[in-house]
Amino acid sequence: AEIAPKHVRGSFVFANQLLQNCGLSLFFIIGNFISWRILSIVGMVPCVLHVIGLFFIPESPRWLAKCGRDKECRAALQQLRGHDADISIEANAIRDTMEFSKQSGETHIMELFQKRYVYPLIIGVGLMLLQQLSGSSGVIYYASSLYERGGFPSAIGTSVMATIMIPKAMIGTIIVDKIGRRTLLMASCAGMGLFSLLLSVSYSFQSFGVLPQLTPIFTCISILGYVISYALGMGGLPWIIMSEIFP
């Protein structure tokens, strides 16, 4: 959120969701062929690459400007935007923002509860709470068990889910700056609620022996629909909104 240009900030932050889905998709597919112990060892590889890569990325220009290190701020910004890019306007805007923050004096945690901050605080924290309480982690982590519970082959179900993870996240990355945050978030939440209801209804029908032949189909549709709905909005939008609504 700090290093992305303003006009593509939404897509950049949403790309985090895209890359998460790439990783989940890869491991869902690999997990069908190897044990979880080997899968854990394989997961160490990107972690090591991540640690090594941290030594080659520039510091956040906003943080450097906040510390009064203007030359380093400009150098980091130039590295991020390219050596031929004109960074003067953006660098001056960052510096002015940091200067205004300094003039406002030291901030304390109790200031968050001032009347002017309460509304955005409720929105930001509320969205993050709803994201975690939506059950997305449970659906993704226990997808195999959910498929088996509904009578659908878990290997096929997780493979199909892994296949659609990347395209659905790519769609969200493309449309996030075109449709609008609020509209996309409402559509995402509505889809999650609808497919959660469908999943619970299909399990209830199974328990009472009603339309047992349709339970596997409903289970598959519910899980895939839920995962798609989550990725299109609730997965990445709370992070974007958090970075945009706070001073």
UniProtKB/TrEMBL annotation:
**Topology of this chain in the membrane:** Multi-pass membrane protein
Question: What molecular function terms (GO) are annotated for this protein?
Answer: transmembrane transporter activity
The GO cellular component terms are: membrane
Task: Tell me the PROSITE patterns matching this sequence.
Answer: MFS
- The residue range of the signal peptide is none
Segments spanning the bilayer are: 12-30, 36-57, 117-143, 155-176, 183-204, 216-241
Major facilitator superfamily (MFS) profile domain residues: 1-247
- Tell me where in or outside the cell this protein is found: Membrane
Q: Keywords, A to Z? A: Membrane, Sugar transport, Transmembrane, Transmembrane helix, Transport
Keyword Transmembrane part of the UniProt annotation: yes
Task: Please give the family membership noted in the entry.
Answer: Belongs to the major facilitator superfamily. Sugar transporter (TC 2.A.1.1) family.
- PANTHER family documented for this protein: MAJOR FACILITATOR SUPERFAMILY (MFS) PROFILE DOMAIN-CONTAINING PROTEIN, PTHR48021
Q: This chain belongs to which protein, by name?
A: Sugar transporter ERD6
